[in-house]
Amino acid sequence: MLRSVGVGLALVAVLLATGCRDEAGSDPARHTSKLTQDELGWIRAYSRWTFDFYDDEPAVGADAVAVCQRKVNQIGSAPSERLEDAADRIQTICPLVQQLGSLRHAQDELEYIDGLVLQYMRDEQRLQLRSDITDRSRADVALSGIASDVIGEPVEVRCWDEEDWSRVVREDNVWNDDSADPDDLMGWIDDYSDRIHLVLDVCNTIAAARTRDVTTLNLYDRIDAVEALETLLHEIGHFLESDASEAEVECTAIRSLPGFLGRFGVTGAAARELTELYRTEVYETLDHEYTEGGCPRTA
Questions:
Q1: Are strands 156-160 and 187-190 parallel, antiparallel or unpaired?
Q2: How far is it, in rounded angstroms, from Cα 179 to Cα 112?
Q3: 213-224 pLDDT, tens per residue?
Q4: Residues 108 and 58 in one domain
Q5: Are residues 94 and 174 in the same domain?
Q6: Measured between alpha carbons, how far is residue 293 from residues 12, 131, 269, 288, 296 in Å?
Q7: Phi, psi of 200, rounded to the nearest 5 degrees
Q8: For residue 153, what are the domain limits?
Q9: How confident is the model over 125-149, as pLDDT tens digits?
Q10: Could you give the CA distance from residue 240 to residue 282 in angstroms, rounded to a whole number?
């Protein structure tokens, strides 16, 4: 969900300071070295080639092999030792387009190569399973359970600290040949891996709201809380309305918000008041992409 990041209840800092910090060194995957710029450039070239491979009309024969090999040569050699296995394996693909009967095997080979590359990306590495407030990235068990229940199938909500957020967004950009700015993003979904990605502040704000009566918070903290909760609901909505626009998903999320708030102990008039607070203090400030056509109140 493209929005400027401005979420953070004051009580989150209080809870972190009173014993909810995760233990140092509890996540060895955090120390896995980042991909270098040369490696990211090579991976983007490889990913672009795979898009072409899948998008092009199936072609077989000597000419198809020659075209394939020319494109593979453009990817270039591996820029590091850890990508050499993937680069070497790519060379097995083009001979497989010589005949129709081996195209399926070529696709299997590509999936294997994908695994060789993806293992170095942060999102493919282990995350701690937690439901409380943390100062490091986590897979949130409680939020994953709520999202899975609403969607009707298992999904995982991943919450990324500032350093990891920048890394996973940029790596996702490379893999999908995209250009999203980490500073403009609060969340997005990966329906291929059944994951919802959120900035850690959003998850911590929700975790804090789960332990407090949101309606008793001051105005600014109530706004932060309802914005965080609606952000999660919006991303859930992308699973439920896979072909809908951002504006359509946003409107559906707002209309569903009173019921969703019930999962966090806010019901009836209080839930409707928080939803109205979201409409006036957050929705009206969103980019046109999220407000196009408006979102009329239901009767």
A1: unpaired
A2: 26
A3: 999 999 999 999
A4: yes
A5: no
A6: 35, 37, 27, 9, 9
A7: -60, -35
A8: 10-20+132-291
A9: 989 999 999 999 999 999 999 999 9
A10: 23
